[in-house]
Amino acid sequence: MASKKGSDKYSVLLPTYNERDNLPLIVWLLVRAFQESGHDFEIIVIDDGSPDGTLEVAQQLEKIYGKDKIVLRPRAKKLGLGTAYIHGMKHATGNYIIIMDADLSHHPKFIPEFISKQQEKNYDVVSGTRYRGSGGVYGWDLKRKLISRGANYLTQVLLRPGASDLTGSFRLYKKAVLEKLVESCVSKGYVFQMEMIVRARQLGFTIGEVPITFVDRVYGESKLGGNEVISFAKGLLYLFATT
Ligand code: GDD
Ligand code: MN
Questions:
Q1: Among the bound ligands, the one closest to the CA of 16
Q2: pTM assigned to the model
């Protein structure tokens, strides 16, 4: 195991809704990635009252890895992804925050790359990108690919945010920067990821990018439906009109 570097600590926010089958594996991969790279960390699980018993699984993991590594911050019901991050952030003790999906679409092996990229130029934000270099998407059908590409393309044209993946949600933020961004963000649904990058640019924060592969989930199903697509479009138009 490598030695700890300085006093930096990384708080990983893992929002979960029906991720019972995925949680043990993602946590194991996270712990391994941090132990191998020698960075201090905590994993904050924000479960929204999953009916499949995700929270009970998380409690088992808390026992295995310890309360300082697995921090449970559940909410009583499904209140959405955007507010889940905000809720988790309030309990984070690290000076850096990593947000990612809990369904194994985002592989923890990329985290050391996020950290080195951040340190390279002291970036305020490091964003995982599926649309540059060796990045990519695996397992999505054509419809889902078109929605993602379309959302990115429209946003690029309308808002010119200067980052290649706007709807992705595998990112590292300086904690103070994330707090600032959350304060200035109006949207709370899936469009939240896009607004965060747009606001970051607007407020003059620096953004680094790391190519990542996004692999569609094996267990469980996506919570992104037609409603999310419509609210994304609304959010995008709102930002276009106001920024
Ligand atoms: N706590 C909580 N509450 N967690 C939630 C909720 C909620 O209401 N909705 C979803 N999640 C969790 C899931 O359990 C998973 O860990 C993560 O948030 C992403 O949800 P998915 O349902 O798997 O999203 P996706 O795969 O369709 O969408 C991914 O790609 C989109 C487009 O690139 C995500 O990365 C999105 O954030 C991204 O915008
Ligand atoms: Mn997913």
A1: 1
A2: 0.92
